[in-house]
Please model this.
Amino acid sequence: MANFDGIVVGAGVAGSTTAALLSRQGFRVLLVEKATFPREKICGEGLMPAGARILDELGILSELRAQGAQAFSGIHFHLPRDRCLELNFGEISPTAQGWVVPRMILDESLARFAERQPGVQLREAFRVLSAQTGPSQVEVTGLYQGQLQTHRARLLIGADGIRSRFHNGFGIHRRKRRTRRFALRTFYDQLQGTGMVEVHCCEAGEAYVAPMGKRSARITLLLFGTPHRPRGAALSDLYFEKLGLFPRLMKRLKSPYPQGPVQSTGAVSLEVSRCHGHRLLLVGDAAGAVDPVTGQGMTVALKDAQLACRFLKERLHEDRLSEQDLCEYTRARNDYFRPSFQLAQMLLCVIQYPFLARQTLKALSRNHALRQKVLTLATTLGAGSFLNGRDRLHLLLGM
Model:
């Protein structure tokens, strides 16, 4: 017999939010996480206005502000050959703001928020050993506090990130990535902020400057290829070498050497064949991750949790959780996020080819309607807006 209505594997942004929202709909949820909070996760840490609104609705944005979250008013792209593109959120709404929230703080806040919901049980340091779906229930077995535990539910939700354990089974497969990218991240405490998130671009990738205070910032390098370094070389040496690709940014640093530890990760984007199975749903990065060139990763995770919970509300009540019952979720998710994913692909092309950067800047300075579309896509993840063929042609021709 099922102990829970749902078991959520992974207590990151998407997983904790999904568990909390399902509890608010009256369901019993077990939320399991392999790590113990607080825990680090490599991320640009910028939250777009749409994501900030969700956190405000949940009632935890004020808590994050008290813990040091920093507001920013837009994104400033420094493109090749000294060209600039500024996307100011105030052009969409005078109250629109993004927030830089360290993942160590955000993830723990969301997990504790979920834990406070009456229908949620949180298990940290729970190592999942097996997960199975059956005709009428799912079963998860894991190691918790030195003992084997088995829990049963009517639905299994995978929110365990871009390397999800659910990708090599359940009929779900990773699709080959067109472009390989990796990230390097560290902290600088002597960098004057501009009130915006800065994205410095070159043909090799981007450097993201996320303000953490008046004179400190997290600088994340997102680069094409794989992180090769000589045997025995420190990760900080590789970071310093790659930072040299952004001379304008280096000139602003009193010391170009990192003031904090350097962290790295690969596989920053993901496409899967589908994000559902029999009594199984994937959310967040496990369901597909957009390239972080747009800085929308955390906002996508929050939106995804909302979308999944709206979709599941009636189906969980009626126990309509077969593969056929859940297939509409994959279509709905793909349709909802497609405009944002297309914007990310467009920006990747603009960054790599200076000609496209020049034409895009011309188009966005001349065509107000097109600029509003791009801003809406960047701030709201495409709700009610998308770039059609004519828009892409205007960007290409600079019209």
Q: What stands out?
A: The domain at 181-266 is CATH 3.30.9.10 (D-Amino Acid Oxidase; Chain A, domain 2). The first helix runs from residue 13 to 24. The radius of gyration is 21 Å.
